Amino acid sequence: MVYKWIYKTPEKFDDMLMNSDGKYLIGLCFLNSKDVLKHIVDCPLKQLPIFKQTSRWLDIYFSGQNPDFIPEYKIDNITPFRREVIDIVNKIPFGCTLTYSDISKIIAKNRKIERMSSQAVGGAVGWNPICIIIPCHRVVGTNGNLTGYGGGIKNKLALLNHEKNDMSKYFIPQKGSRAL
Fold first, then answer.
1. Is 136 assigned a catalytic role?
2. pTM of the model
3. Looking at residues 133-147, what average pLDDT do you find?
């Protein structure tokens, strides 16, 4: 059985949907984003210990601090490549960013291969079912291009700003599917 809880965020952000299997957090996304399609919305609303733990983490995060714990989460059907990407994303410090290219170079070096596709990395980052806690918002395009974010570019901008990033380094594409 899958359960849900809605987290009320600060004003600059869309509220968030949490999913749980009853024990672990299995999904976290912004409502009103395309990421909602990856989660179960039509399920019972129930306050669970994992939702309380996740809400506490989010309360600390949105107060401007870096939480010193991670809510217990579980990711089903994760491929080894996606695990590798998520492990790297999890190491990006609060207030910092990496590019998709940076991550592809780390993977290529770890695997002792010449090159890894940045697009493949982008697909793995975009697949992430647990936003903010797995900080996929900290991955940006080359030269600060804020390419598509499943949680919505508005939320990505707000998250990067919230973490006190130098926002002058980033831009939103003006044309195409990645634009605001």
1. yes
2. 0.92
3. 92
